[in-house]
Design a protein that fits this description.
Strand content: under 5%
Number of helices: 20
CATH topology of the largest domain: Clc chloride channel
CATH architecture of the largest domain: Orthogonal Bundle
Shape: globular
CATH superfamily of the largest domain: Clc chloride channel
Radius of gyration: 22 Å
Mean pLDDT: 86
Length: 460
């Protein structure tokens, strides 16, 4: 028979282990710092979006020069100085969690230097009008801050590098979306298959504390407002199935396209990207600018404004909004600049749900389909269904649609799995290819998606 713990002895043992309490205090302090870092990044990103809108309102055709210039500059800086800052940032954190990564190579994927570069370059991309999000980069930013706590932990501390990275990456989601529960689920579903039992409570506490930093600064308001859910009857079944299947197919194809484009192939464009990455980025920037001008500005930026309008019941989106935003987001990712996929994916999903609702003549009762489209498309792209439905539920106060959103996320993720590998884990394997071979230390700065050439270094 198992004996129950002695109450007094248990308290004495816990209080006598000073290393444990110092370690907990360090983790909590860095959790606050990680949350505040994401808050500062959120503020900077919003100022960048506002700045671009002001420039576009001043001169509507200015993006035709402004966007390619910023894309070119961002791509050059990233390739030349911080190749680990490219893309979303989630694959880098997943790569750093790999047991095959030696201590001396962790800084290739996560560090304070990369966190700062990621914040500045992502905000710069938004200032340039690129169709990128800030939520994925928040994961790498918070993980870089959290990882720094390791040097201040006492020796033989029970808290290890793996736990800090998981807590930091999930804290980035919690603070970025103002959704602590989504951060916890993201840690379980994407960053690790299980928590370390001994430190699970501390890790969850760190995630929640980071999320509370966003709540304390921005308030407890939902990210996209409150969705209006009318009485749902059988007339919603067919439209809902159409949204789930359509978003699953579209998201799976989009995820596959992103992976193939980033890894590259034998086609002419991939060859141009490998040999002339800066010129290729400039071409992507010009195409993004043209699409943005043609669409009346609807495809510029993360898509937050249009998504909020759709959630509020204004379904007057521009013609071909979904298609054009998919292309603009794809080009932004293909250019190699830092930037995330969460917000653009939510915008695409919202637009797809609105299109189906208009096709089915649901009119102002389109709210549930818009929320379902957001959930389904995000789940299809990320293949993280539980995280996706919790994110949307917390962002639109969609507790009345819990079962519908969960079914949509699971169904769309299943359809996407038939078309594409999980995007972030596949890209994490690509990131692991950046680890230099032991016989050639000069390869540390190499990147598998856009090798540095004379155009980047300035040498001929």
């Amino acid at each position: 028979m198992h004996r129950q713990p002695d109450f007094v002895a248990a308290i004495r043992n816990d209080l006598s282990d000073w290393r444990q309490w110092v370690g907990r205090a360090v983790v909590m302090a860095y959790a606050v710092a990680a949350g505040l870092a994401v808050v500062a990044f959120t503020w900077l990103s919003q100022r960048a979006l506002d700045g671009f809108d002001s420039l576009r309102n001043w001169q509507p055709l200015l993006p035709l020069l402004w966007t390619p210039a910023w894309t070119t500059a961002s791509a050059w800086i990233t390739l030349r100085f911080v190749p680990g800052a490219t893309g979303s940032g989630i694959p880098q954190v997943m790569a750093a969690l790999s047991p095959n990564v030696a201590v001396e190579h962790r800084s290739l994927f996560v560090s304070l230097r990369l966190s700062l570069a990621k914040a500045l370059l992502t905000a710069g991309g938004l200032f340039g009008g690129l169709a990128i999000g800030r939520e994925g980069p928040s994961v790498q930013i918070a993980a870089g801050v959290m990882q720094h706590a390791e040097r201040w932990l006492p020796r033989r501390s029970a808290i290890n590098h793996h736990g800090l990275l998981v807590a930091g990456g999930a804290a980035g989601i919690a603070a970025a979306f103002n959704a602590p529960l989504a951060g916890v689920m993201f840690a379980i579903e994407e960053l690790t298959q299980k928590f370390e039992q001994r430190n699970s409570g501390l890790i969850i506490a760190a995630i929640v504390l980071s999320g509370l930093m966003a709540v304390s600064v921005f308030g407890n308001a939902t990210y996209f407002g409150i969705i209006r859910v009318p009485r749902i009857g059988l007339d919603y079944v067919l439209p809902a199935v159409a949204v789930i299947l359509g978003a699953g197919l579209l998201g799976g194809l989009f995820s596959r396209l992103l992976y193939v484009s980033i890894v590259g192939g034998a086609d002419r464009f991939s060859g141009w990207r490998r040999s002339h990455p800066i010129r290729f980025a400039a071409g992507c920037g010009l195409a993004i600018a043209i699409i943005g001008v043609v669409s009346g500005g609807s495809t510029f930026g993360s898509g937050y404004d249009y998504t909020r309008r759709l959630v509020d019941g204004h379904v007057d989106v521009p013609l071909l909004y979904v298609t054009l935003r998919i292309v603009a987001t794809w080009l932004a990712v293909w250019s190699g600049v830092p930037g995330g996929l969460f917000a653009p994916s939510l915008a695409i999903g919202a637009g797809f749900g609105a299109d189906v609702s208009q096709l089915m003549h649901l009119g102002q009762a389109s709210g549930p389909l818009i929320a379902l489209g957001m959930t389904a498309f995000l789940a299809a792209v990320t293949q993280a269904p539980i995280t996706s439905f919790i994110i949307v539920m917390e962002m639109v106060d969609g507790h009345a649609m819990v079962l519908s959103l969960m079914a949509g996320a699971l169904g769309a993720s299943l359809v996407a799995r038939w078309l594409s590998r999980p995007l972030y884990s596949a890209l994490a394997q690509v990131q692991l290819g950046r680890i230099p071979a032991p016989s050639d230390p000069a390869d540390v700065a190499a990147t598998p998606v856009a090798p540095v050439d004379p155009e980047v270094t300035g040498h001929h």
